[in-house]
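LOG
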Amino acid sequence: MESTSSGVCAFALNDECDRIPEILARSWVNNYRLEGIFGRETSKHKIKGRVTLKADYDHVTRHRLEKLVARVQSEYRRAAFHAAEVDIQSEEAFELARKGMPRAKLPGAQIIYGCEVKHFNLPYFALQVQSVGETDVFLRCFIHEIGVSLGTTASCVRLQRRSLGPFHAGHALLEKQISLQNIIRNMELCRRIMKNLPEDEKVINENSSPYEEDRLVVDGLNMQTDQEYDAMRPVWPRNYT
């Protein structure tokens, strides 16, 4: 993820780094909250980029946005079957749809499986997006295309990853919780989650909740918190003159 984005990230240590390609090949469905603003376009669609264009947006309504989102989601779902090289009219497609969604055979295929309007208050709006193979650039451009398709423009003002496949915010360590003991406990939790993942080479599961450990397991980690942690401390050094 880029420095202007936030959310759940996965890290590997030592020999486990060799498993990163294997993990990426699982094509996990990741969950994002994307917040955008209509009527404003930035340089290269960056969150903190220079504003390069302004446009009217008064004609945009929640109903129009929801209709567009539904159409885009339908088109991407159809594209998922093409990326998996499956005839959408075949019995194989029916069986795959019954189990979940087909796994793309093309590595790095960027597909949106779900999109829902979570907030609308002109000029601001927020979407919940479930996607595979995405990048920050892809998601920011997606927000821009939403605006263009509605006869205006738009830019992303916040990008937050709520889950990375089976890993959710409840499984993550905050900066104030990072210590050797907590890292070891978190590694054990991640191993349990990975061990319990179902394996189906042709199907990906959009609902990652069955993969989660019981809440008792997560709470049982008893993460320690640095009581002197300064939540307002920036990542860059303070210089006062």
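LOG (cont.) second protein
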Amino acid sequence: MENTKYTPVDSTETNDPSEQKRKSLLPRNEKWQLGIFYAALATSIVCVLNLIITIWAFVTHGMTYGSAVLYEGSCETTKNLNIGVHLIINIFSSAILSGSNYTMQCLSSPTRSEVDDAHARGTWLDIGVPSIRNLRSIAKRRLWIWLLLGVSSIPLHLFYNSVVFTTLSGNSYFVYITNEAWLSSSDSLIVPDSGEYGPLLTELVDKQLWKANQAGSLQRLEPRSCIDAYARSFISARGNLLVITSNSTSSSEAGEIFDYASGGEITITGGQDATNLDPYSWICGDSLKCLKYYKSSKLRHKCMEYEFCDVDALGIRNNPQNWTLNQRKVDYCLSTETEEHCKLRLNAAIAALVIFTNFCKALLIITTYFSTREHLLLGIGDAIVSFLSHPDPVTEGSSLLSKDDATPHQKFSSSSFGPRPFHSSRKRWLAAVSRRRTITIFTTAALSLIICSALLIYASFNMKGAKPSDIWTLGFGQPSENTLITFAGIRRRMIRTAGLLSNVLIANTPQLVLSFIYFSCNAHLTSMLAAREWSSFAKTRKGLRVHTHPRGAQRATYFLQLPWRYSAPMILAGALLHWLASQSIFVVSVEWWANVTIDIEVYLARGSAPSIE
């Protein structure tokens, strides 16, 4: 066979392996460094924006319970603002993490001297793909920057999506069964003590409702409207309620109060005996089958702990004309209207942690831009230029050396591989990816799907009596008493920063998993495109794609291996998945409001204190 002499495309001294062990000053117009520059710029801009927004929030709105209240008012407006803010947060985090990923791949790319050293030891390094195995062979300075960039990503995944969160407004309310005679009486009647809230509180609530009705400040709701208004997880715009029934015309028989009076209060966190009560089971009243076993009104809550009030399944919503409470037909309701107090909060501790991590990332990327002078083999084109200019003596004569011949556990040398015939065969893109990488990504994805399915089944199971289609009626990013996840170790006393951080860590764990899947997919696709680029040279004559000193027909590029038509959709899909995860599993904070104009600290101390779900 006639020997072919290859003319080096780039014969500068910097391609000499002996020169790779010293740093050389590269011009700033190298394309891969331009990518590092853009990564540093994007990360710095996000850091400055985070800092400005945080300072503005606390200077403008002050701080309460370690958080700034960005907005207080309508719960619908709060929900929409929360969705929009989290969309922006995930765009910011995607910009930071994409720049960090780009920088980390550059740092883990080997120089020619590092490749030669590895070959001399009988092993190999990855070129053109994200690599962890390269970390054992690269310079210590690049290794430490790579590790710090990786570690700094963890706080962003775990906390960034919870820096802004909502506080729902839940009204604690009393429900009175009464009649027209009580409404038209000259004075209110003192309701018998329910035993749980004290005689003074019960009397004051009774008098308030009577006076409010006399003043005409109560809103009349027909049975169907009353059910729709109060059959909700959290009541934020309404308070104490009068249920006007027939079957009795004597004012002396009026004024019965449910022992399960605070329909808006449910046990959502706590100790070993934490339960998840249905917050509007009083509506079902006579429809709950278990009530026949609990004749005493003081035991009604026992029944309501075990039987779910489904106003649709029990036919109450669709047949309001047959709605009865305590064997009395409901004619209409008189409802107290209240202001909504839903809030959008920015937590100071989490914001400080995010800004500090963001600053560290920006500093590390800027350090990489100014300090990295080595000629890195970032892609297939860079490797081809280097090895054509200065052939490797270890692999010389092994032109048909394949991936299968160089395994992580097998050392190789030039004497290990003799001449062999060439067999042309079509291979799928998947063949370019190592078996370990393939198993890792599919196993992680499968486990994630299993866990998501388990959580969906858990939530569906808690929606007792609900149909699968009812899941969509819950609303996007909306909390429900049926889908709350409670932990015995997270107690009510941790209602401030400590409790919030504990819940944030739990809620944002899926963000870490999604990021691992994203980086695995990125490495997976990068490996396939690198193999495709290598194989394409056998079919089409074209200039090499290089990242350093393009010569002649060579093409300069700043992206590493994934062109924008692949990387841009991946970044967008990753941001969308992170956003969806933030709206699927999230921290719920609730402030309970007691609609009684008495000393709440004495009688309902928990009424206005926020509890962290």
